[in-house]
Amino acid sequence: MDEETDCPGPGGTADVVCALCGARAASESAPPTWLCSVENGSRHYFCDDCARTHIRAIEGRLDSAWW
Ligand SMILES: [Zn+2]
C-alpha cells in the first residue's frame, strides 16, 4: 500500500525534512511541490529537487533504499 502523493500531512507537529538531502520545508506541512512516499508504514518526504531527480524511481514504486 504505497502512496506517492497527496498524503494527509504530518499532523501539524512533525518537521518535514527531505529524506534524501535533509532539506527542511519552510512550513510545518510539506509544500505541494514535495513528494510524499509511504514506505513500510512510515512517511518520507522528498523535496522538489530530489523528487525531480528520482521521479522515475518514485514512479516505479521503488523504495528509496533502492535509489
Ligand atoms: Zn531533497
Automatic annotation (TrEMBL):
Annotated protein name in UniProt: Uncharacterized protein
Organism: Streptomyces poriferorum
Organism ancestry: Bacteria, Bacillati, Actinomycetota, Actinomycetes, Kitasatosporales
